[in-house]
Design goal:
Layout: E1 26-28, E2 31-32, E3 43-44, E4 49-51, E5 55-61, E6 66-67, E7 72-80, E8 91-96, E9 101-102, E10 106-107, E11 112-118, E12 123-131, E13 134-135, E14 139-144, E15 150-153, E16 156-159
Parallel strand pairs: 6-14
Antiparallel strand pairs: 1-4, 2-3, 5-7, 7-11, 8-10, 8-12, 9-11, 12-13, 12-14, 15-16
Length: 160
């Protein structure tokens, strides 16, 4: 959380927050505002607290029909330790079998990244993505031979 309120009660001058969760990485100060302002108005710590959100998981998706020599988009979603899209810096690497050709690495934006990928060889392939030592599950698919369909309708020839 970047801002918000967590309420607690002191015991012998000490307060412990067990449910405090900061979702962003960075340096933070803690500001204490007492409900009884006759003693002190408010207090902000002079020390900073460094918080690092880590990558929990990566999911990778590809289209169902992939054809040799034609580019397709592989989309990755990176989740942080809070279960939401990872908002930190992540340089996502794509790796695969049998001569994958891709725009890698890609920086994530809001936990998302897209890769332009193509293959020059047909057959069974697999892709996975890596960020900060976390590896996605491997996505397996088949790259098909390109096809050209010619249809004759009257005097016209239609290529698809």
């Amino acid at each position: 959380m970047t801002s918000g309120t967590v309420i607690g009660t002191t015991s012998s001058g000490t307060i412990t927050f067990t449910s405090l969760l900061i979702l962003l990485s960075g340096e933070f100060y803690i500001k204490l505002v007492p409900t009884d302002s006759t003693i002190v108005d408010e207090f902000t710590t002079t020390s900073t607290y460094v918080v690092t959100n880590s990558v929990l998981s990566i999911s990778l998706s590809v289209p169902t029909a992939i054809t040799r020599f034609f580019a397709f988009t592989a989309s990755a979603t990176v989740l942080g330790s809070d279960g939401n899209n990872f908002l930190g810096t992540c340089s996502l690497e794509l790796s695969g079998t049998n001569s994958v050709i891709a725009t890698t690495p890609q920086a994530t934006s809001g936990g998302l990244a897209s890769f332009s990928v193509h293959y020059e060889v047909t057959g069974s392939k697999s892709l996975s993505a890596t960020c900060n030592t976390v590896i996605s599950s491997t996505t397996t698919f088949t790259v098909l031979v390109e096809t050209l369909t010619i249809a004759f309708t009257g005097s016209a020839v239609i290529f698809t």
